[in-house]
Write a structure and sequence with these properties.
2 domains, 9 helices, six-stranded parallel sheet, Rossmann fold, alpha/beta, 44% helix
Length: 220
């Protein structure tokens, strides 16, 4: 019996991941370089994606770069872009459905607490969550399952009693390693991946209501 639903944050509630790529692309163009989408996509869900991108850019242009300066520039561009971003379609609807069904709701993200919860508060979502686990709560980030194990413990449920929503390969791998049902909702950066381990793949959180999702992922 499903007793809880969990959510990733970046790329699932707010499309920070696509925005992060676009912001870094602006940096790359200052060096007459275009970052290939398929290269960046490999890092989606990683906590060090910008550091990896800095190393890739340095190798691509064949010249040393000040990574701290690049990260600072990227951060400025990114923050300016994300400040006006909207929640992804279906987020509020799924949270409302979960509450109506009496399910516990958790947030399990590799993002820092101040970052994720800051936006959760900004969009008025904080009261939906019974448990929030972030980067500060674990030693190992996704794809390690530790974040999900911590969230399950916080919700006082077993892995088979939860469904989580993810958008990245790292997130999917973490969820499945923890024994949790996983519904993948790819964003623009991750839609090319097959997500073979997923219990269900949706194009949007609006594609299917929660009752249908629960029936689909638990029927086997």
């Amino acid at each position: 019996m499903i007793k809880a639903i969990l959510f990733d944050f970046d790329g699932l509630i707010l499309d920070t991941e696509t925005t992060e790529f676009i912001a870094f692309q602006e940096i790359c163009r200052q060096y007459d370089y275009e970052m290939p989408l398929d290269v960046w996509s490999q890092w989606t869900g990683a906590t060090d994606s910008v550091q990896r991108a800095c190393r890739h850019l340095e190798q691509a242009i064949g010249a040393p770069l000040d990574h701290d300066v690049i990260r600072s520039r990227h951060g400025e561009v990114f923050r300016g872009m994300i400040a006006t971003a909207d929640l992804l379609p279906g987020v509020v609807e799924k949270l409302e459905e979960g509450k109506r069904r009496g399910l516990r709701i958790g947030l399990a993200t590799s993002a820092h607490y101040d970052w994720a919860v800051g936006y959760v508060k900004k969009y008025g979502l904080l009261d939906y969550f019974d448990c929030i686990r972030t980067k500060e709560d674990v030693i190992r980030s996704k794809p390690d399952p530790q974040i999900y194990r911590e969230a399950l413990a916080g919700l006082s449920i077993e892995p088979q009693e939860a469904i989580t929503f993810e958008d990245s390969l790292f997130g999917l791998q973490a969820a499945k390693a923890a024994g949790v049902y996983c519904v993948v909702v790819p964003n623009a950066l991750t839609q090319a991946f097959t997500f073979e381990q997923a219990d269900l793949r949706l194009q949007s959180l609006l594609e299917m209501d929660l009752e249908q999702i629960i029936a689909r992922v638990t029927r086997h």
